[in-house]
Amino acid sequence: MLPRAPAALGLLLLLLPPPPPGEATKKPTPCKRCRELVDKFNQGMVDTAKKNFGGGNTAWEEKTLSKYEFSEVRLLEIVEGLCGSSDFECNQLVEEHEEHLEAWWLQLKKKYPDLFEWFCVKTLKVCCSPGTYGPNCLACQGGSERPCSGNGLCSGDGSRQGDGTCQCHLGYQGPLCTDCTAGYFSALRNATHSVCTACDESCKTCTGPTSRDCGQCEAGWVQEDGACVDVDECAAETPPCGDTQYCENVSGSFVCEECDPTCMGCTGKGPGHCKECVPGYAKESGQCTDVDECAHAGGVCPRRNENCYNTPGSFVCVCPEGFEEAEDACMQPRPARDEATEENPAPPPSREDL
Ligand SMILES: *[C@@H]1O[C@H](CO)[C@@H](O)[C@H](O)[C@H]1NC(C)=O
Ligand SMILES: *[C@@H]1O[C@H](CO)[C@@H](O)[C@H](O)[C@H]1NC(C)=O
Ligand SMILES: [Ca+2]
Ligand SMILES: [Ca+2]
């Protein structure tokens, strides 16, 4: 018997709230739960192996060490670390089967060193050995040694579920995942192995790795001198991009990018590739640059005394501070006068509405 553990577990289980009803729908399969438990158990064995009795090798220490190694004390330590305190399902599983775990630990470990095989497959019958599936643990398609020729996943592999059929990895197809899909070619094929390798990006189908091995070209490539070469879509008679965009030829395709905002039409990125400039800009050593209208001889501001400020793409005319705007000039300020008394004879505030 495990000292104290059952009582402690029972108390723990009583104190725990029942699992929320929603959990039931997405709970892990019994096999997955068993596998997790075994993983934790194996980890517990690793952790406790490092523990206690470091160094020294006197006869007494060796004797004590081997005593601990197979002891119920060590088993209890491992079992205590198996489940999180709020993991109801895990604690239930341990409680239900701790006699099994104890029997394996004390008597069967030598004969059945793989706890997963002994506990989850043979004893609880909730899992299958790797490479087998279904209620009776039948061999997967392609055999239990290398299911699906090593190129796919066997449905239900290692569980008591599934139908043993293959879900092939990318590039493979067929019941045993030995055939290559379009876009892949067979790089190796013998009685037991099949390797499919991706074609060059220019091929839709191929018999080898380069653009010269294409059967059909991929969209965006054309057959030329025995190879598939990229189409320059930008050179098409009707350009594929808009008036405010330029076209960039890329492998298998093309992209349209917006012109610089200073351009009216362009052939590439930035203000240096404009066809024409937008109003307010002019080409200056090949680049569309803001025109400094204020620098024009004679000035651009129509009114007398007016100040000119250059802005990107334009300019503004404003009267100097304190000047007053008139039809055709900025007027010098008149001498100051008492505006408050003339225009705002402020009445004393009424208190009645407070
Ligand atoms: C098939 O090819 C694999 C991978 O190269 C090789 O390991 C295996 O021995 C080959 N089997 C046969 C039967 O030739
Ligand atoms: C663009 O077009 C030319 C065809 O003139 C092609 O040879 C070239 O490789 C294409 N692709 C890229 C990414 O430049
Ligand atoms: Ca292209
Ligand atoms: Ca300007």
From TrEMBL:
Domain of life: Eukaryota
Alphabetical UniProt keywords: Disulfide bond, EGF-like domain, Glycoprotein, Isomerase, Redox-active center, Repeat, Signal
Signal sequence bounds: 1-24
Family annotation (SUPFAM superfamilies): Growth factor receptor domain
Region annotation (Disordered) ranges: 330-354
Cysteine pairings via disulfide bonds: C168-C177
SMART domains attached to this UniProt entry: EGF (SM00181), EGF_CA (SM00179), FU (SM00261)
Pfam family, one: EGF_CA
Catalytic reactions of this protein: Catalyzes the rearrangement of -S-S- bonds in proteins
Pro residues: compositionally biased ranges: 345-354
Domain spans labelled EGF-like: 136-178, 290-331
Keyword Glycoprotein: yes
E.C. no: 5.3.4.1
Listed GO MF terms: calcium ion binding; protein disulfide isomerase activity
InterPro entries per record: ECM_structural_protein (IPR050751), EGF (IPR000742), EGF-like_Ca-bd_dom (IPR001881), EGF-type_Asp/Asn_hydroxyl_site (IPR000152), EGF_Ca-bd_CS (IPR018097), Furin_repeat (IPR006212), Growth_fac_rcpt_cys_sf (IPR009030), LE_dom (IPR002049)
PROSITE patterns hit by this protein: ASX_HYDROXYL, EGF_1, EGF_2, EGF_3, EGF_CA, EGF_LAM_1
UniProt family annotation: Belongs to the CRELD family.
Physiological role: Protein disulfide isomerase. Promotes the localization of acetylcholine receptors (AChRs) to the plasma membrane.
Protein name: protein disulfide-isomerase
